[in-house]
């Protein structure tokens, strides 16, 4: 600001009223000073942060910090939608494949934030068919528990209220992946998985037309599988998958967790709450626990539930 004041004083003749600077004089201004006065647009900042994140010559901490700033920007829906126009989805997906753990984790986090309750960003992301890779990471022990947790966060954002994404996951046998995630040694991953299953149940329209929540159909193109275009509804698909893949049993009969395998998920209040919510949603939507009734009852009674 002092530089701007100095420039203004030096370029204003004495005893003459100040006049707007000409285009020629504006060229003499340091661009950094102009940015200080007017402020950079979010699009410019996003480009700068992404450039830093892509620069493999920089330290991991610096790249992660840039991605952290980027993630805060895409919390705004306009910036999230602008990822397509700015051609940023491809480089973000490349960063999600990075061998640098922090960079990979933050890139996945950004994608998850961008698609939260945002059908336009969901469909832009889905055009790149990210589900096979995300599902492969969800149960991979080649990445950390914190990265798997971000993967579940991203999956939740992508699948919520998006029929095409749910059908694509079904094509990829994603239910077995979720079942595996319920045995993750990291309890945070298990909590997020239980939450995701409940979210999918809430938007699974029953054949009678009743549902715990109304499903918002995807605004994007239909997803095509091997047998042609998929239905525009997930009616009953989630409930059937839960029964077929025995997800209720997996929820209420958790294996020990933790680095030493000595944690009891049934004693984790957050996990318990999410599992009980999922069971209640399943039953309200017409599901029957069947052979899992005994295990469900035991889970409810554990720890005074």
From TrEMBL:
Q: Name one GO cellular component term.
A: endoplasmic reticulum
Keywords per UniProt: Repeat
Please verify whether the record's keywords include Repeat. yes
- MF terms (GO), sorted A to Z: adenyl-nucleotide exchange factor activity
Please indicate if the UniProt record lists Repeat as a keyword: yes
Q: Where is the composition biased (Low complexity)?
A: 10-23
Q: Which InterPro entries match?
A: ARM-like, ARM-type_fold, Hsp70_NEF-Inhibitors, Nucleotide_exch_fac_Fes1
Give the superkingdom in one word: Eukaryota
Q: Which Gene3D superfamilies match?
A: Leucine-rich Repeat Variant (1.25.10.10)
Stretch list, region Disordered: 1-23
Q: Which residues form the Nucleotide exchange factor Fes1 domain?
A: 1-83
- Membership in a protein family: Belongs to the FES1 family.
Q: What is this protein called?
A: Hsp70 nucleotide exchange factor FES1
Origin organism of this chain? Thanatephorus cucumeris (strain AG1-IB / isolate 7/3/14) (Lettuce bottom rot fungus)
């Amino acid at each position: 600001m002092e530089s701007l004041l100095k420039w203004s004083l030096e370029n204003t003749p004495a005893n003459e009223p100040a006049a707007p600077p000409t285009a020629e004089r504006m060229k003499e201004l340091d661009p950094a000073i102009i940015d200080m006065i007017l402020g950079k647009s979010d699009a410019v900042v996003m480009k700068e942060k992404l450039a830093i994140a892509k620069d493999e010559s920089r330290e991991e901490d610096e790249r992660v910090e840039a991605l952290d700033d980027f993630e805060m920007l895409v919390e705004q829906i306009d910036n999230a939608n602008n990822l397509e126009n700015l051609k940023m989805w491809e480089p973000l997906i490349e960063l999600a494949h990075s061998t640098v753990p922090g960079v990979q984790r933050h890139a996945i986090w950004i994608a998850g934030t961008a698609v939260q309750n945002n059908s336009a960003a969901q469909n832009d992301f889905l055009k790149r068919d990210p589900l096979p890779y995300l599902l492969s990471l969800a149960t991979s022990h080649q990445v950390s528990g914190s990265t798997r947790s971000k993967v579940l966060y991203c999956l939740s954002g992508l699948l919520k209220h998006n029929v095409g994404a749910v059908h694509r996951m079904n094509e990829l046998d994603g239910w077995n992946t979720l079942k595996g995630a319920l045995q993750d040694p990291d309890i945070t991953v298990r909590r997020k998985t239980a939450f995701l299953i409940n979210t999918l149940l809430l938007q699974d329209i029953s054949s009678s037309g009743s549902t715990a929540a109304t499903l918002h159909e995807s605004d994007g193109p239909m997803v095509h599988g091997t047998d042609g275009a998929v239905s525009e509804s997930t009616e009953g698909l989630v409930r059937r998958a839960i029964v077929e893949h025995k997800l209720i049993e997996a929820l209420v009969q958790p294996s020990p967790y933790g680095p030493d395998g000595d944690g009891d998920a049934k004693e984790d209040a957050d996990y318990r709450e999410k599992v009980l919510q999922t069971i209640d949603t399943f039953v309200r939507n017409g599901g029957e626990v069947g052979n899992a009734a005994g295990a469900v009852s035991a889970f409810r009674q554990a720890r005074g539930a």
